[in-house]
Amino acid sequence: MTLATEVKKLTDSKPFYAVAGAGDYAVEKLRELPERLLKLESRRAEIAKDLPGKARTYADKAEGFAREFPEKARTYADQLTVLATEVYEDFATRGRKVVSKTTGEAALELEEVSEAAEPAVAAPVKKPRTTKTTTKATTPKA
Description:
Blueprint: H1 3-11, H2 14-117
């Protein structure tokens, strides 16, 4: 199988687009990270002050959560399956857009490069005019 065929088969697959979409989403979220870190940094003292009280509250609730866990785990697993399918579809759609945009831009760049790389066309060469000359046939003398 040729490389072009393999690449075509890969780029036509939904997992390829899902990975491209997930990568695009990750880049988007990483760009938001510095701003979010600055907000958390400004709230650090407030969060640290409330932490001991919240820890006691959650410790008291832990026993109740432990009893309800098996039933809730099944419910969450079912919901997670549906959610995972939706996220997969969203990433695949997003990936198709990213790949389509990228390949479109690449195609335009290749077209520009190809036009710039075309050799100059030389002007047609005119053949010199030939004049008819008559030559006398001479017969060799014996």
